[in-house]
Amino acid sequence: MSDGPTLSFGLQIQPQSRMVSIVRRFVEESFEKLVGDPEAVFRVSLAVHELLENAAKYAVGDKAGLSVYFESDGAAASIKLTNETTPEHIRRLRACIDEIQASDEPGELYQAFMRRSFGLQNESGLGLARIRAEGELNLSLETQGTTVTITASCLPHKETQP
Amino acid sequence: MTSWAENMKENDFSAEANASERRIQVTLSGTADLTVRSQLDRFLRDVHGEAQRSRAEEVTVDVRALEFMNSSCLKCFVWWISTVQEQTTEGRYRIVFVSSPTVYWQRRSLNALACLANELITVQA
Question: N or C: which end of chain A has fewer CB within 10 A?
């Protein structure tokens, strides 16, 4: 358990592209004031941005729910985004997240996603691979009908034995 | 003396390019997100076109004032780098990113881009 304060909030937003950077800045500016590790703040705000952008591109309907949980020492974080989407997108999302979860080398997989994205306009999965590699966060997917929830999280660091 | 210049300003993002002799200087600032992706794509295609026309040796991309770049815009750079890699030796040019160590996305994202073509890309911090 973290000694510092825990920060969390939830937002209901319209998944529109112009909202993405606004919300990322809100997260950055709020957390920077309270957290001593700017790189940890960056990792959370990166995940917020890429997940919201995913919703802006592929969500069906005008609502997305974002929740962010963050321990102020950066030891634990969880960013969760829920929205409606199409069965076809859920299929692609599941394949992408399965591939990311199966890899022990997030950096190499990120490179592979980059190379694969050459010539693709959409649906490359690069944003999710980026969350895993640059954000150092684990990804998971839950679905219920056409409601999809993507979670990016890191667990508290285990105490190392002397 | 500048022989070619390209500018774009959209939302909270701006891009400038100037060519002199066989070098091109690109400066990006603000936020590169989904709202400017297609404009950035066109801009980099123009930069590449000018680099080919002028047989540029080097393109310097100053991103120090670029607060954030999303994955869609990173894909524009993947296209650019991959396209330069596909050129014959005469058509290739070096790409130098000038970055800020205090802007956290830059180290991780630019290093990842550099790994696509170590022979062509340098990242200066």
Answer: C
